[in-house]
Amino acid sequence: xxxxxxxxxxxxxxxxxxxxxxxxxxxxxxxxxxxxxxxxxxxxxxxxxxxxxxxxxxxxxxxxxxxxxxxxxxxxxx
Length: 78
Prior knowledge:
The chain is mostly helical. It has helices spanning 9-17, 19-25, 31-49, 58-77.
């Protein structure tokens, strides 16, 4: 791996799951719930990218919107 874009979404999550890496980010949020939500987003992303014929549910759509909004706010305050 030479560049960050050589990683998969799951690999990003595994990197920041490690407390030593998480601490380097200096985020003012709790790690465990954030990682849990990222895993939900990863699953939704995989459904989309593997062309799930059923599409995504309203709950999944809401999860994506909520995470997007959360990350936008996180950028403002961290």
